[in-house]
Model the fold of this input.
Amino acid sequence: MLIGAHESIAGGLEKAYAAAREDGCEALQIFTKNSNQWREPALSDAQVAAFRAARAASTFASTPVLSHDSYLINLCAADEEILRRSRESLLQEATRCERLGVELVVLHPGAHLGAGVEHGVRAAADALAWVLEETSGASVSLLVENTAGQGSAIGVKFEEIGAIVRMAAGAVSPANRSRIGVCLDTCHAFAAGYDLSCEPGFAHAWQELQREIGLASLRAMHLNDSKKPLGSRVDRHERLGLGELGPWVFWKLVNDPALDHVVGVLETPPVEKDRCYAGQLAWLKAMRGAVAPERPTAVAPQPAAPGPAKRSRKKSD
Ligand SMILES: [Zn+2]
Ligand SMILES: [Zn+2]
Done:
């Protein structure tokens, strides 16, 4: 698995590449807009050119880059106006990414707000299929992310994710089917009740993942530890190895050859503006080919991040 982080686009989209290089990223996720606003920025040709040039000069020329969609989007909203806005916003995101050459858009399937999981799954699949058909001929893929299950969020169980993917695939042309995939967030899965922290729990969850989703559909991962306990259904990311998940799962993931095709990015919280990505990525890379860590670890496995302290980073999840 190639590993990296969600980097800031403060000062321009192309700035993410410099931040990624400083942190030692092999993979990269960005926002292409303010994730807490509906406003859809129109990209100028100059912005697109700057982004593409920065990428060509980086180590990401042939590694897929991820974008995370807006947090306001709810693809199964009961309110017609919010649903229309949400679908339109995802379409805009996919269109922006296609122009930028960003290959993968990660999206949250939404919250059913009382209408029921089945309704939510159908509505999310319908929205996905609509965006794929509207962008026929494009190469950007849409990845459904599993959720922690806060409130009435759908996509908590692997079977819900699998159902969304299969339903959307059944509603689009064969050419667009390959543009649907899945992004698995380790913190969300743990909070949803999948105990990835140890061998037996991981094996059980992975069996279910293979049955309901399939490893071929798994294209990306969000590598986050969890502040909250197993099954809490509360989404609070923690730095790797310091949370309830602990270090073992991250060792397991970076050493699994079946995940060589997957890109993994950190979305861990900053401490006094310092995201410590450089330190965490160094820690993660050191796990490659190493013996499995004991759990619990005697010493918190968090190296200090020397890194450039002055860089300002925007909050992201
Ligand atoms: Zn995530
Ligand atoms: Zn999260």
About this structure: The two ends are 21 Å apart (CA to CA). The CA atoms of residues 198 and 248 lie 7 Å apart. Residues 296-301, 303-316 have pLDDT under 50 and may be disordered. The pocket of zinc ion (ligand 2) is lined by residues 185, 187-188, 235, 237, 317 (CB under 6 Å).
